[in-house]
Specification:
The protein contains three helices and five strands, in the order E-H-E-E-E-E-H-H. By secondary structure, the protein is α+β, with helices and mostly antiparallel strands. Helix 2 packs across helix 3. The longest helix has 12 residues. The radius of gyration is 15 Å and the shape is flat.
Length: 120
Amino acid sequence: MCGILGAVGSPDEVREQCLLQGLKGLAHRGPDDSGWHVIHQSGPQPTSIFLGNRRLAILDLSLAGHQPMQDLNTGNWIVYNGEIYNFREIRSELESHGIGFNSHSDTAVILKAYSKWGAG
């Protein structure tokens, strides 16, 4: 079972070192890989978004399944724990629309499906 960690707040509130300690505490949840990314949004109220993941690799054992994962076409990010049982069928449908993939993970399918169909 993977472990995920996230935080949203001002740049002062999202302290990377504290969150990395939290991610280290989840090591037992995902011994195969660890990753994190901080998204900084500027504006009148600057915001930082921390995404962290401890991975137990099951479907795509390669580094292509590393999380957090970004869709380079849209800029969307995901950190995810779960399993999409029909991801192969969804992937085939997306491929029939000309959408390509860089991994064999269900996480990549979620990102591309969101890009194609949105949240609803």
